[in-house]
Design a protein that fits this description.
elongated, single chain, 5 helices, mainly alpha
Length: about 250
């Protein structure tokens, strides 16, 4: 009897802690989503788990290379740096300058004016520039090389993000499956403990232990489901698909 009372008190303490944690989580949830704090939150359905088959690694990498905005920005920077480098190099080339002028000429512009003008062309060769062109070319080449190096590193980072997120997602699916099986076994164990207690071949301590084990299994499954949703969000972020992501 003393053992049963002890287990009962422990269960009451665990229930109080769980209730307090649930109330705190509810307030934080209302604050995050912008709901009035004086209203309660009621879940309309139990958390479900119906995972879709994640895409293959190559497909996920292609999605990331096309969908990550930082890669698009880096591509634009590389294109701009290359264009600037080519423009600075072109300053070394000779250039042809065309000039022209035209207008009306005569004592009476209204009736006796004649159209006159001139045209000319000149060839400019940059021979004496004080090495200014070379300096600008080197500076533009340095910016181009830096932009190309950054995008190579960024692509490697994106690939790492995708691969790690995919590994975490697959592990999260297995974790939920394992936790679900553990919960099912705990439910079966509780049913058997109830049958033995009803038949008088077991005491209430065994029944309380089974209830505790089921509670723990449910908590583990809920944590696994939460980690699965986090893994889904991380995978969508790694692929650049957060706009289309839904819980």
């Amino acid at each position: 009897m003393a053992r049963a009372k002890t287990r009962e008190v422990e269960q009451k303490l665990a229930l109080l802690e769980a209730r307090n944690a649930a109330q705190e989580a509810e307030v934080r949830l209302q604050r995050v989503v912008g709901l009035p704090l004086d209203r309660g939150v009621t879940l309309k359905e139990e958390p479900t788990f119906a995972p879709a088959e994640p895409p293959a690694t190559e497909a996920a990498l292609n999605d990331a290379l096309a969908g990550r905005w930082e890669l698009r920005i880096a591509d634009e920077r590389v294109a701009a740096a290359r264009a600037q480098w080519r423009a600075e190099q072109s300053e070394r080339l000779p250039s042809i300058v065309l000039t022209g002028d035209g207008g009306l000429s005569g004592p009476d512009p209204d009736s006796r004016a004649r159209l006159t003008g001139s045209a000319g062309a000149a060839l400019q060769v940059p021979l004496f520039t004080g090495r200014g062109i070379e300096g600008r070319v080197r500076e533009a080449d340095s910016r181009r090389a830096s932009a190309e190096s950054m995008i190579v590193d960024l692509r490697a980072q994106v690939e790492e993000d995708v691969r790690l997120a995919l590994i975490d997602l697959r592990a999260a699916v297995e974790r939920v499956d394992t936790a679900s099986e553990a919960q099912r076994l705990a439910e079966d164990e509780l049913d058997m403990a109830r049958d033995r207690f009803t038949a008088g071949v077991a005491d209430n301590v065994e029944l309380l232990n089974s209830q505790t084990a089921l509670t723990h299994a449910r908590n583990v499954r809920i944590s696994a489901l939460a980690r699965y949703q986090v893994a889904r969000a991380s995978f969508a972020l790694a692929r650049g698909r957060m706009r289309a992501f839904q819980f």
